[in-house]
Every structure is written in structure tokens, then in C-alpha cells.
Amino acid sequence: METVLTDTNITLEELIRQVRQSARPIYVGTDGEIDIVVRPVKKNLEPERAAAVDALSNLFHKLQLYEARYRMDSEAFFYKYENALLDESPDFISWWISYSAFAETLMRYNLTRSDVECRLMAGSERTTGAFAPS
Predict the structure, then answer these.
(1) In terms of pTM, does the model score above 0.70?
(2) One domain for residues 30 and 70
(3) For 46-91, how does the pLDDT look when each residue is reduced to its tens digit (9 = 90+)?
(4) Assuming Cys at both sites, which of 33, 44, 66, 83 could form a disulfide with 95, CB separation 3.0 to 4.6 Å?
(5) How far, in Å, are 13, 29, 57, 82, 111 from residue 9 at the CA level?
(6) How far apart are CA 74 and CA 68, in angstroms?
(7) Is 36 left (phi over 0), alpha (psi -120 to 50) or beta?
């Protein structure tokens, strides 16, 4: 269940208390408009962040394939697709879905694309070192 706060007289302390008690985002606004979204931060997020980076590897590889095929980075594609500057195609729909999931996960765990790239590079270096031809 979403929590929506519309009380304009809420104190910062009360907002913090409600965020700490909630596991879900809290939407704050007035006049039926959402002005901000406050997402609770878990105390020990590091294991979840590491798992999220690992889970993002498949999406990341998929994005790289689209970027190479269409010679465009995913951020530029997303902007163009969202603004109807590109035609719809099965590839573009799949790319849009993949990038949306990737970006949402990055935001949720306060990660960057370079966090994922670095983790993948570190993993491939270990693998490459173990199987390097002599």
C-alpha cells in the first residue's frame, strides 16, 4: 500500500519517522499532485547492492548488443524513443524494456552504470586469467 502525505504542516521529524517505519516509498504532495518521492534507505544495503550489480549483468550485456547494433548509447536511444523520434519495432520495444529495468534498478540501489561495468570487468579479469592461453 502506498503512503501519500498531503499534510502541508508535517514536520521534518515526522516525515523522517514515517520514512523509517515504511519499507516502501512515501509520496509527498498537495492538491492531488506529487511533489517528491522519499525512498527509505536500508541500513545495510551493501549485500543487496552487490547482488543487484550481479543481477544487472545480463541486462547490461543485452544493452551493449543493442548499442553496438544501432550505434547509439542506451541513454540517447531512451530519450529518442520516449519522445517518438524513433519508429516502433520489436527490437526497440525490447531495448526500451531492458533499459527501463536497468535504469530503475540502478536508481533503486543508488548505483551507476560504471559500478556495473567495473564489477563485470573485475569478474572477466579473473575468468580470463584462469583460462588464458599459454
Answers:
(1) no
(2) no
(3) 777 777 777 788 889 999 999 999 999 999 999 999 999 999 999 9
(4) 66
(5) 12, 11, 44, 37, 33
(6) 10
(7) beta
Q: Which three cell numbers stand for residue 104?
A: 530503475
95/63 Cα distance (integer angstroms): 7
- CA–CA dist 52, 116 (Å, integer): 9
* Parent domain of 26: 3-38
Q: How far apart are CA 81 and CA 34, in angstroms?
A: 25
State the pLDDT confidence band at 132, using cuts at 50, 70 and 90.
very low
**Domain shared by 57 and 88, yes or no:** yes
